[in-house]
Protein 1
Amino acid sequence: MSTAGVTTIVIPTMGRASLAVLLEALAEQRVGVPVVLVDDRPGEGEPLGCAEGLDVTVVRSGGGGPARARNIGWRHARTPWVSFLDDDVVPQSDWYACLLEDLAALADRPEIVGSSGRVTVPLPRDRRPTDWERGTKGLETAAWITADLSYRRDELSAVGGFDERFPRAFREDADLALRLGADRGRVVRGRRRIVHPVRPSDDWASVRQQAGNADDYLMRALHGPNWWTRAQAPVGRRGAHVAVTAAGAIALAGLTLAGVRGSRWSVWLTAAASLGWAAGTAEFAWHRIAPGPRDRAEVRRMLATSVVIPPVATWHSLRGRWRHRHARPWRGVPELVLLDRDGTVIEDVPYNGDPSKVRPMPGARRALDRLRREGIRLVVVSNQSGVGRGILDRARVDAVNERVAELLGPFDGFYVCPHVPEDGCACRKPAPGLLKTALAEAGVAPARAAMIGDIGSDVEAAVAAGVRPVLVPTRATRREEVVAAPTSTASLEEAVDLLLRGAP
């Protein structure tokens, strides 16, 4: 079987030392596929090292979190499959060969959209594992984690990829899997294996993890109250944490009340609540201490964090419930943006065949580069009736387009209609022919594309092609065209802002 063009490996990273181990392991396996390394460090760090023999492309995601980093990564891919790896895993020596076998087995099964690897978490053999180590061990049985998970690229595109409202490496993989029907058997487990070592942690790592309680309420808003079952996720101790937190709050209130009035009732209330808080906290601490090594450091860590975790978890639950109460399904950014040329990305010079007269619209290069950094493809769709009228020839139109690319950066294609309106062709805007051709050649569904133009024919062509239109009016735009446009912005940069919001 040919390995060319099967899959792209996407690795989001914060530049941890474990990345070098992963890349060396891939290089030793003679991996013959593209690797997209997504640098998610918020600032300009040292260049990421890449192992020799790998076809690595490094792109930046600016510290937007793992969901955003993976989205940028898969949008840069041009293969039928995208294979995600975390930067702290170690693939076994036959991982790549097994990956190809796993994907080849699904070639005639289009109903299967994903293939997950098998995870091994090594634990110490000379002692019982700590609470943190046991938590990491749970990855072995977790469903659909992106530590090693491959998806069909067109399926990722269809749902807009990962929901970037999940800001951390938690629940974003389960959410995507549910949207792709993993709970209905559309994601299967492959033969390939990775090792996921236990990362070092500090004493308060388990407390910081409680921020994930807010993400659980986003899952509930998107997938309903039974999402736990569908995602094969443990229910957790949220109810117990609320009870312990409430008991602690009542005890504090009772102490305050006792200090003011000194009533017997307040003393009994304080005593009962304090006893409930102490019992609940002790039970939680023992639940975490008992399976562990029970050494002094672990006991101290469990006692301290068991006091803090219930109120922190409750706070994040309340925060998430409020914040995500009106959450709607994720839409994501478009995968392809079609652009009118004259009046949209460059100044409109009627029937221009002279490259020296090309002048970019204000802010155009900056706006288009923002789209490129997201992995969004850009094509130009332009009516050039000057060819049909004999004013221009196609070579001069192409020369102008080459100058546009020189000034505004690379485009994935220029699509030109050379006809006059009287020809009645299917490609001249407002007909959708140019747009449909561009969509077909890019392999992008209309729902995953947007069109930016400056006149009504651009909007009409987009609507006819099933593409989202955004009008950026100029002095040439008629008032009725602005009124009729579903969406309009004051500038190209504002249009890009709109498309990049990734709004539901």
Note: The domain at 336-500 is CATH 3.40.50.1000 (Rossmann fold).
Protein 2
Amino acid sequence: MQWQYAIREFSGYLRLEKSLSANSVDAYISDLKKLRSFSETLDPPPEPDKIDISHLRRFIEWLDGFYLNSRTQARIISGIRAFFRFMVLNDIIANDPSALLEMPKTGRKLPEVLSVDEIDSILSVTDLSRETGRRNKAIIETMYSGGLRVSELVNLCISDIFPGEGFIKITGKGDKQRLVPVGNRALKEIELYMQDRRHMPVAKGHEDILFLNRTGRRLTRVMVFTIVRQLAARASIDKVVSPHTFRHSFATHLIEGGADLRAVQEMLGHESIITTEIYTHLDREYLRDAIIRFHPRS
């Protein structure tokens, strides 16, 4: 089995069967191409269906030469494992050589989280006298109230907003849809922004897109990053703030407030609850109080 064919088939599997986004597919293929580059240094160079555990261990040593950190190496190994699982599923190989491959210890990096006061501070510095002011305030409220990814935010449609029911419909990874409840403050800011939007130019094909730029087209991810960082700087927030920070804050505040972990998983659109568990990084005093209050032996 030649590398070119294997890469093409794996790419199709990720897009069609796993329904991954173009960015995710590119990341997997980039990792696989690193393995191909390594194989070309061997004599003779093995085809993908001939690679065994000894090759993969040497591949890890080869990666070390590029001074990649452990998290990057772990991500690459994860991509390689996905490739060999695909090979087994399609009866190209009988045994998965990556099954015995050890992952580097990465530690657990906790996401940056804003306090409620810090979020209020960011909202308070939004300049409502500018034509983009109402839009930017609605963006912050929507991300924080619904825990949206930036890609979900820029693709949010007017027809996805259900103010009477207090829900918004979100299309997440793999085009999977979920309904997320949002608070009155977010819905109110969207309503106020819509009053401004009615007087804005709207480009053809963008009529249903909620958040538009000055030319009437959907915002880019980069533009949302810029808006968030400028507002955080204006509010003198001494943290690295990105659109995803509001998603982290949304989940953390819910869990600290006593929300069920599975409910938070559903609202975030996580396939696995393991992904959601990172948001349980509560302080020790909170955990101590919880044990004292609820454990029968306390």
Note: The longest strand covers residues 167-171.
Protein 3
Amino acid sequence: MKLVLASNNPGKRREIEALLAPAIELVAQSALGIAEAEEPHASFVENALAKARHASRAAALPALADDSGLCVDALRGAPGVHSAYYAGREGSREERDARNNRRLLAELKDDRRGYYCCLMVMVRHAEDPRPLIAEGIWRGEIARAPRGANGFGYDPLFLLPALGKTAAELSPAEKNRISHRALALRKLLELLHAADHA
């Protein structure tokens, strides 16, 4: 099966490709000259669906999209859908990540509970009336300082107390076994398998 991936985020693309290969062939939307879709919505599912429909329409292929972010209890779910641009849109992805992490640390006091949320959506065509939708939640805490060199985004601050490591201290293979994106993708593949055999 061939899908267009509705994301230009290289970290997401690496993780999703590793989880889907070799069963599903992914084509990045950037390789097809497709621009990123707008993400104006207040929920992960609406943004993921908008991205999937946009990429599917432009590529004339089934599309896979995810919208994900870090939700912190003490911040009433923020940064949430605004995770990528929490501290502004200026600069490279790495500069934005560093700024986002600094802002998050500055805003937190004692309650450091949070979770990564991933909403994964697949549409068979742009007007698919029954998109496949799966959610993955990965619970943890926000560390007091960044640790680790792997991953991207908030991974250096996302602490997994049971492992004593941040997501950025996990190997890519470890992260791909337990992350929010892995959980959502596994559920999505089960939905796809069930739909194919319905």
Note: The chain has one domain: 2-196.
